[in-house]
Amino acid sequence: MNDIYLKLKRPLVLIGIGGAGSKVAVESSKSMDCECILISNDKKDLNINYRSIFIDSEPWINPTCHKLRSFAQFSSNEIRSELQKFQTLIVISNLAGKAGTAITPVVEKLARQHSPTTTIISFVIMPFKFEKERIFQSGISLKRIRDFSDAVIVMDNDAFLDNNPDLSPEECFEITNVAMRDVIDSISKGFILPDMNILYISKNYNDSAELSINDSIGMLYHNTDPELVNRALLYVMGGKRVPNQTLNLIVQILSKIFTNEGTATIPMTMCDSNKIGIHLMAAIDGKTRFDRYDPLSDIIPERNVLDWEDMDTSPDIEMRINNVE
Ligand SMILES: Nc1nc2c(ncn2[C@@H]2O[C@H](COP(=O)(O)OP(=O)(O)OP(=O)(O)O)[C@@H](O)[C@H]2O)c(=O)[nH]1
Ligand SMILES: [Mg+2]
Does residue 134 lie in a domain region? Predict the structure, then answer.
């Protein structure tokens, strides 16, 4: 049974890519007391107290995702030499952002090529549905990230906002970032399922385990069909304060919602916290809603995608055209 969970080896590093990725990585590295590497094309995301890799996109003020990817490739040697010391990489990035979308697949590909045995866990944030111009690129990037990672954990901003329509995007970021940090912090105590996992979280940390799990289940229904969930895990913050009877009841309710035999048992990770909050992590079988973000993938099989091996980039190539007159 325990064989299905990923086994993580030291040394472990947190890698924050772009704005939100760096913010979450720095906070988590403080509480986990582990190393942290930041990577971005925006100096504001980097921090002199941590190893920082600046992706120089000069002279472009607003490089496209493709251009940024080619600039990241120019920093391959630096990225590779930082990553090679580690056995486990936890990569955090925002696929609603250009830096996260462009740079994450490049970093993970370099890590995978250098060492096929390195464990790569990717935490990614997906865009809101109104961020229309970001949806397609996020879908493409997520597919590459799934290919390189041993496990992907998705924080779907859109499903969270659908379930909590009264929140502003800013409030939403605050809550989702804390939930991601909770789960990252408990990685050493908890279980990590391979493949594609989606995180369903509570809106408020409060004193009620029942209200908290209601939030998580509500978000689940906004994101997927519970029949597609093939395994589930619970992260119970402030778990020592929740009566056993309540925990039993929550597991009973969840096993009625999920029908797949893999969800017959639902392991729990208890985490220290003053407030009670319950996050649900679900591993999804087959396609998810994010596959629809890149609708071309349904039409063009992976083997026919011309830029599958090396993702499309736009390097600046200067050509001298001699005057032949
Ligand atoms: N979940 C979450 N989303 C955020 C956060 N900050 C910003 N966002 C959303 O993500 C978008 C891009 O944010 P960044 O994290 O800066 O993205 P990036 O990877 O640095 O890429 P850029 O687009 O180049 O800034 C914003 O427009 C917001 O929609 C955050 O702290 N948490
Ligand atoms: Mg940014």
Answer: yes
Rounded to the nearest angstrom, the distance between the alpha carbon of 279 and the centre of ligand 1 is 22
Please measure the distance between the N-terminal and C-terminal CA atoms of the chain and give it in whole angstroms.
76
Are 213 and 257 a contacting pair, CB within 8 Å? Answer: no
Is there an atom of ligand 1 within 6 Å of 100 CB?
yes
Residue 110, domain member (yes or no):
yes
Give me the domain span that covers residue 21.
Answer: 10-149
User: d(Cα 28, Cα 8) in Å, to the nearest integer?
Assistant: 17
With a 6 Å cutoff on the Cβ, whether 23 touches ligand 1 is yes
Q: What are the tens digits of pLDDT across the range 210-254?
A: 999 999 999 999 899 999 999 999 999 998 889 999 999 999 999
Q: Residue 173: which H helix or E strand, with range?
A: helix 169-185
At 105, which CATH number?
A: 3.40.50.1440
Predicted TM-score of the model (pTM): 0.94
- pLDDT digits 0-9 by tens, 176-213: 999 999 999 988 778 888 989 999 998 877 778 999 99
Cβ of 123 less than 6 Å from ligand 1 = no
72 lines ligand 1 (CB under 6 A): no
Task: Give me ligand 1 centre to Cα 224, in Å.
Answer: 24
